[in-house]
Design a protein that fits this description.
Helix content: under 10%
Low-confidence stretches: none
CATH superfamily: Jelly Rolls
Strand content: 35-45%
CATH topology: Jelly Rolls
Largest sheet: 6 strands, antiparallel
Order of helices and strands: EEEEHEEEEEEEEEH
Distance between the termini: 27 Å
CATH class: Mainly Beta
Strand order of the largest sheet: 1-2-10-7-12-5
Shape: globular
Number of strands: 13
Number of domains: 1
Structural class: mainly beta
CATH architecture: Sandwich
Mean pLDDT: 97
Length: 185
């Protein structure tokens, strides 16, 4: 497995070793020992799958309390995936990183606890997977508006398709500080 650091400390692109031949391909989508060897020790307790059409933007979502670390990847199609550091007191507070995840590049993105997450579908449709370090809790569910000018995320779409919930999310600066996770050095 190849580990590629992003410009946002803690968020890592993981590129699996792919075995390909005339029959197709094989790769490990998760191996606890290999993650531990690069300093990651997530304990996954929930897995999710979503399918989205082109132009659908999901996010920016997070949970607090019960913050979720996420290992995300795309099985079919292509997305622009974004993580935002929203930990109060973090030296990287409000910074984001974005990467293309696709069935072609087979990359995964590790998003630590305390980060908001979102993606937009670039292909006709995408099948997206998440492994999460905590279970979904509706009482802890929160989000930030995708087009928050403070974040200035360089989304590759101007008019994404949003759920009603995501269209009504607040700006980062509108969230009460206690709603955000704390940075722990």
């Amino acid at each position: 497995m190849k580990v590629i650091e992003t410009d946002l400390p803690g968020c890592l692109v993981l590129e699996p070793r792919v075995f390909e031949d005339a029959r197709g391909f094989f790769y490990e989508s998760f191996n606890q020992d290999k993650l531990a060897a690069v300093g990651l020790a997530p304990r996954f307790v929930q897995g999710n799958v979503s399918r989205s059409s082109q132009g659908v933007l999901r996010g920016l979502h997070f949970q607090n309390p019960k913050a979720q670390g996420k290992l995300v990847s795309v099985l079919e199609g292509e997305v622009w995936d974004v993580a935002v550091d929203i930990r109060r007191g973090s030296p990287d507070y409000g910074r984001w990183t974005g990467v293309v995840l696709s069935e072609a590049n087979k990359r995964h993105l590790w998003i630590p606890e305390g980060f908001a997450h979102g993606f937009v579908t670039l292909s006709e449709r995408a099948l997206f997977t998440y492994l999460c370090t905590d279970t979904y809790d509706p009482a802890a569910d929160a989000g930030i508006r995708w087009d928050d000018p403070r974040l200035a995320i360089d989304w590759p779409v101007a008019q994404p398709l949003l759920s009603d919930k995501d269209a009504r999310l607040p700006l980062l600066d509108e969230l009460p500080p206690e709603r955000l996770p704390l940075y722990e050095a």
